[in-house]
Amino acid sequence: MRAILLVLVGLTVSTASLAADTLARVRETGVLRLGFRADAPPYSYRAADGGPLGYIVDLCREVARGIGKSLDKPDMKIVFTEVPSAARLESLRDGKIDILCDPTSMTMSRRALVDFSLPTFIDGAGVLYRTGGVHRLEDLSGKKIGVLRGTTTEDTLKTTLAQLGIEVGIFPMQSHPDGIRSLSEGKIDAYFGDRGILSYYLRNSQNLAGIKLAEQYYTFETYALALPRDDSKLRLLVDATLADLYRTDAVKGLYARNFGNYPPDQFIRALFVINGVPN
User: Fold this and answer.
1) To 5 degrees, how large is the angle CA 78–CA 176–CA 214?
2) What does the pLDDT average to over 174-178?
3) Of 213, 231, 252, which one is at a domain's C-terminal end?
4) How far apart (Å, rounded) are the C-alpha atoms in residues 120 and 274?
C-alpha cells in the first residue's frame, strides 16, 4: 500500500510539474494560446470580423507582449481560442489554453482548478426586466428568470432565492444573446448577468424597447485572468505586467477604448491604485 501511495504521489507531482511549465512550452513552440469568450462584451467577445475584442482581451494582449519580451521572442505567435462559458475553466485546466481572457470571477472553489492573476475588474450581478419595476428579489416571485449557465451568478441566484423562499422558474441559458433574445421575445420576465455585460447589450441591441436595467447590484465580484495552477513563473510575469499597467496609468487608455465616455468608478480606480504593485 505504501509503495502504491508513493507512486501516486510521484505521478501527481510529475503531472503538476509538466502542467506548470507554460513559459518553457511557449519558448519551445513560439506559440501563446489565449482563451476568450464570444458573448461577454465589453470584456471579451467576438467582433464583426471574427476577431477577439474587449477590455480583458486588451489586457491579455499586453500580457502577451510582456511574455514575448521576457522570453526574447519578438515573433511569438498569439493564438486566440474561443471557449464556452460553461467549460472555460476546464479548457485551461486541461491545457487547451494558457491564459483565460474573460470576466471570470475569483472564487475559492475555482482555485481548486486554476490560479488567478491580480484583479482585472470589479462588477456584480444585475438584472434586465421587461414588466414592472424590480426593486427587490421578492418582486420576481412567480416570474420566469433567465441566467447564464455555469456562472457564479447562476449559483448565487439559486442559493439566495432558496434561502428567501422565493419561488421562480429559472431557465439556464447557453449564452447572453440567447438570454437577451428570450427576454425580448417574452419567453422570460427577467435576465440576470454581470451588470457591465447587461448594460452593454442594452445600449447596443435592437428590439429591447420597454426593457430596463435595474439600478441595484445583487452581488459584487472580482474578475481576474485565470492561469494554470502552480505555475508561479507565469503568474509572476502576468502580475508584473498588470501591476505596471495600473501603476503607470497605461491602463486608462485601454479602459477608454472599451468603455468610451463611461469613466472608471470609485471601485475601479481603487483597484488600479491598490494593485499597482511596485517592482
Assistant:
1) 125
2) 92
3) 213
4) 12
DSSP H helices in the chain: 2-19, 22-29, 55-70, 88-93, 152-164, 176-184, 195-204, 232-247, 251-259, 266-274
Nearest to 125 by CA among 180, 191, 76, 68: 191
Provide the residue range defining the domain that includes 154. Answer: 125-213
**Grid coordinates of 259:** 468603455
Query: C-alpha 14: how far from its chain's center?
Result: 29
> What are 248-277's pLDDT values in tens digits?
999 999 999 998 877 888 889 999 999 999
What is the phi/psi pair of residue 73, to 5°? -125, 80
DSSP class per residue in 182-241: HHHTTS-SEEEEEHHHHHHHHHH-SS-TT-EE-S--S--EEEEEEE-TT-HHHHHHHHHH
**Can you tell me the mean pLDDT for 133-146?**
87
Q: Which residues contact 218 (CB under 8 A, 6 or more apart)?
A: 124, 125, 126, 127, 137, 156, 157, 160, 192
3-state secondary structure of 75: coil
**Contact call for residues 15 and 226 (beta carbons, < 8 A):** no
Cis peptide before 42 (omega within 30 of 0): yes
Task: Give the chain's domain count.
Answer: 2
82, three cell numbers = 474561443
* Domain-located, residue 264: yes
Q: What is the CATH number of the domain that holds 175?
A: 3.40.190.10
Same domain, 226 and 198: no
**279 lies in some domain:** no
Residue 128: name the closest of 62, 195, 61 by CA. Answer: 195
Measuring CA to CA, which residue among 98, 87, 93, 85 is closest to residue 112? 93
